[in-house]
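Protein modeling request. Please complete all fields; requests missing the sequence field cannot be processed.
Requester role: graduate student
Desired output: 3D structure, token encoding
Chains: 1
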Amino acid sequence: MRRTTRGLHNYQHYSGKYKTHGRSGQCHGRGFPEQQVDLRGRVTIISETRGLALADRAILEYRDGELAQVTATGSPAHFEQRRTDSQLPEHGQADEITYDAKQEPSASTAMRT
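Delivered output (113 residues):
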């Protein structure tokens, strides 16, 4: 199957537990099961069970039709992580946040204050 690229405008997508939105972007890949979506402009990624991320840009990688990894960048990018215990959610921000959909989010650069 041939690799394709298509432009996106006001992109919204629901995938399992995740809802994503961006003003514009591009989709690269060989069809939905294996593709990469590059979103720009007020990107929002919401996990029903784990929290949310807000960024200027995010690259979403899908494997086997499911969201596998997100790399969010911004000045700065923000995240809120819900905890499994009864404590308040954790908040953080960084220039780049890498999120493995099967793991916990981690800021790959120093947190800003």
